[in-house]
Amino acid sequence: MRVAVIDIGTNSTRLLVADVAGDDELTERERRTKVTRLGDRLGETGVLSDEAMARVLGTVREYLEVIHEQQAERAVAVLTSAVRDAANGEEFLARVRAESDGLEARVIAGEEEARLTFRGATSERAAGDAAPTLVIDVGGGSTELVVGSGDEVIFHVSTQAGVVRHTERHLATDPPTEDELRALSEDVRAIFAEAVPEEARRTARAAIAVAGTATSLGAIDLDLECSSGHNVQGHVVPLATCRSILERLAALPEAQRRGVRGLHPDRAPTIVAGVVMIIEALELFSLDATAVSDHDILRGAALEVVHRARQSEAPNPPS
After folding, report:
1. DSSP character at residue 267
2. By three-state DSSP, how is residue 318 classified?
3. How many angstroms separate the most distant Cα atoms in the chain?
4. Could you tell me the CA-to-CA distances from 170 to 43, 162, 184, 188, 206 in Å, in that order?
5. In which order are the strands placed within the sheet that holds 236-238?
6. Residue 126 predicted with pLDDT over 90
7. How is residue 140 annotated by DSSP?
8. Which helix (H) or strand (E) holds 144?
9. How far apart are CA 229 and CA 231, in angstroms?
10. At residue 227, does pLDDT exceed 60?
11. What's the pTM?
12. Under 8 Å between Cβ of 271 and 258
């Protein structure tokens, strides 16, 4: 089955079109990302701005053309932290539905976001690999921390730590001062520590960091031209390297960060906060490295769409 998923996040709007076979083998046909900053100034105003909503709706219209060209059988959109938090989130959801004929759009709770992210991140692990794994999904308005073994999620939490949210909250100077960086790290550390009990912190034996911050981190470490997820998939970044990359990025003004190899220019404003969050997550769980992956909520949602379709088509058992 060919399916399409649009992920409308706080910082970016992303598209995946993929074929999913009967054994859950997923073949990507199209993947696109655009930094749309839906959550811009949300922390200050409590609402999604007209400009931000227009950026996202324009991007969704572009993606719908791709979806139609690719002849996807099912198309869904998942809306996450920014829309959950905004006073006008429901109004925006209604606009997405009204302006995207045939798109099944819905706001998902943090719990479902965590579950779908874990499913996507671990979907290509070797059969029988049940090592307890931490999945770190750094978003614009929230960060999901999920621990699971095999197909089972053991612990999950959606925290109010996000790259847009925390950049706006703490980093007012360009480049940021040491005091600003310290305040940012301490804030993220406190949020994670409050959200994750001691027992969960001792469970994970490995980490996978997903989404744009993670793939950017991998591409910077590998000194690649761009942060294509395919080029960095599975690359392992030691914690010490994360710290070195943070030090390098934080020392540069935003205009120079835009020129760093491996970093998409649109991620330059928020990458410092993003790397801080990966570092703080690894330290909280006492892990010394993370693999990076672009297999995240998009992949998890695509697999979910197909599973639900199969269940609805399955014949009812005889009474």
Report:
1. G
2. coil
3. 69
4. 12, 12, 6, 11, 30
5. 152-159, 143-149, 133-138, 206-210, 289-293, 236-238
6. no
7. S
8. strand 143-149
9. 5
10. no
11. 0.85
12. no
Cα–Cα distance, 172 to 294 (Å, whole number): 30
49-107: per-residue pLDDT in tens? 999 999 999 999 999 999 999 999 999 999 998 999 999 999 999 999 999 987 899 99
Lookup result for tokens 């909503």: 53
CA dihedral of residues 117, 120, 125, 130 (deg, nearest 10): 40
Q: How far apart are CA 108 and CA 199, in angstroms?
A: 27
Cα Rg for the chain, rounded, in angstroms? 19
pLDDT tens digits for range 191-209 = 999 999 999 999 999 999 9
Return the amino acid letter for 31.
R
Question: What are the DSSP E strand ranges found in 9-116?
Answer: 12-20, 26-35, 74-79, 104-107
CA distance 297 to 9: 11
Neighbours of 148 (CB within 10 A): 24
The rounded percent of the chain whose pLDDT value lies above 90 is 71
Place of tokens 């693999």: 291
Which tokens in the block code for residue 31? 């993947």
3-state SS, residue 296:
coil
CA distance linking residue 67 with residue 5, whole number of Å: 9
CA distances from 202 to 118, 206, 207 (A): 18, 11, 13
Closest CA to 38 of 94, 101, 73, 84: 84
Under DSSP, the state recorded for 266 is G
Distance (Å, whole) CA 46 – CA 1? 39
